[in-house]
Amino acid sequence: xxxxxxxxxxxxxxxxxxxxxxxxxxxxxxxxxxxxxxxxxxxxxxxxxxxxxxxxxxxxxxxxxxxxxxxxxxxxxxxxxxxxxxxxxxxxxxxxxxxxxxxxxxxxxxxxxxxxxxxxxxx
Length: 123
Description:
Layout: E1 4-12, E2 17-25, E3 29-38, E4 49-54, E5 58-65, E6 69-76, E7 92-98, H1 102-122
Antiparallel strand pairs: 1-2, 2-3, 3-4, 5-6, 6-7
């Protein structure tokens, strides 16, 4: 799958930062590329981080469509791969997606759910 979905994570560092990134998928992994920016002046930016989450390590991935924006929830089986993602808590990652990217996000989640179930069946 070649689709990429922009996302945002708000309230990083007790509201002093915001994370922006791109979520994409291939046949074996979800890939998150992201960086954190300060919300005061937007001058301080972290380096770009990349996290790959193998489909067989994803317990759940869902898409929720709201009035103004949408969200993706990813629940993982192991904390280590996802521990560098801002606001990662209780094994879950919540990504906000702009409404204009909701179709691409829904398609990516559908693809990820298919790949996840296929990787679980191989075991």
